[in-house]
Structures are given as structure tokens and as C-alpha cells.
Amino acid sequence: MKTKLIQYLSGFVTEARLKRFEEVLVNRTRHIAIGLENIYQPHNASAVLRSCDCFGIQDVHIIENTNKYTYNPDISLGSEKWLTLNRYNEGEKSLDTCINSLKSKGYTIAVTSLHKDSYNIENLPLNNKTALFFGTEMRGATTELESKADMFVKIPMLGFTESFNISVAAALSMYAISSRLRKEEIPWQLSEADKQELRLQWLRNTIPKVELLEKDFMGKE
Fold it and tell me: What would the pLDDT profile of 43-56 be if each residue is shown by its tens digit?
């Protein structure tokens, strides 16, 4: 049924758009996911989403214990509609729900921190699926998130300032990781099932009044 629906909806977008979907899918990955904890500045949230799309990272996991995650469309440039955003806003349960979900899917939890045992971003192990978490702008990751970490990671800095802006840190980290993935013999590409899921998601986010078209399709099946 999903394949037929994709074929049906594909008739309502241009060949150029369908070709672009396939070009992007070749470089998309779910081997790496990005996690964000209580990010409260819309321009930072927006910039992280834009970087995820640019570097081919599909999944973003957003913990909203204290701050609701909002983004600025002038900065995100619509990148949110091409990503899979997983939001956790159940209060105190949000962190556990997020981490447990990721671990059930085989992800290793890496948290950005100046912890003494932190890996440099260039040396972060990538053989296993990894969810890389960034904490809030002012304080970084909470102690609760750090307690869930399987490993810590940092970006080497050579100046007086102790930390990067979160959007910069996320972009630098994603560049380093995505570049390494494509050079190493790691099966980072999407499965065919994932590709089908995203084709349908992207078609739905592209076609105006797609709900009516789907209703019409279901009536014919």
C-alpha cells in the first residue's frame, strides 16, 4: 500500500523534485542522530536543524523539559520539513523516554562535555549507531543527561573561550562525523524501508492539500 501511495503522490510533483529526492536520499543517514536538551533560543534551534539537513543527518531528538523548542523559519529555511523531529515533552519523563527509545534502536549515547574522559570529535567511535547530544546554551548538558551517557565528546579549542555557541558546536561536530562516515567502511546508508518512509514524508510535506489526495487514493483502493 505504501509503495502504491508513493507512486500516486509522485504524479503531483515535478520530475526535477523527484530526482532531487533521490539525490538527497543517497547521502542521508540514520547511523548518526542529533539530540538536543532544552535549547531555548530559536536562532540556535533553527541553525542546528539547517546543519542536520545540510550534512545529511535525518533524525533529531528534542528534549523539552524546561524549554519549548521553537525555530525561526528565516534561519531554518524550511529544513525542518525534510527532517524527522522526535519531541519529548512529558516533563520529568522526557529524558528517560528519549534515551530508552534510542537505546532500544541500538544507539550509543554520546554527550558533548568537557568531561575528563571525553573523546575529541575526530576520534569519536562511529562503528555503532550514535546519538550525539548537545545541552542548553548556558549550562550545557544536565547532570541527568550526563548520567545516561555511554561516552563524552568535545571539540578541541585553542583560545581563551571555554565553549562554542551550540549551533557552531553542532555544525562542526556534524561536519567532522559525516566526513568520517563517508571515508570509513561503516554501513551508514539508509535501508530501502527508510528511503520509502522518507519519500512518503517528503511528498506529504511538498504537495498542497495532500490529505485530500490521500483520501481520494484510499477511496479507490
Answer: 787 889 999 999 99
Cell of 77: 529555511
Domains of the chain with bracketed CATH: 31-209 (3.40.1280.10)
Tell me how far apart the alpha carbons of residues 81 and 83 are, in angstroms, rounded to a whole number: 6
3-class secondary structure, 152: strand
Distances (CA, A) of 138 to 134, 144, 162, 215: 11, 16, 12, 47
pLDDT digits (tens, 9 = 90+) for 166-219: 888 999 999 999 999 999 889 999 999 999 999 999 999 999 999 999 988 887
One-letter amino acid for residue 207 of the chain: I
pTM for this prediction: 0.91
C-alpha cell at 73: 523559519
E strand segments, 117-178: 119-120, 130-134, 151-154
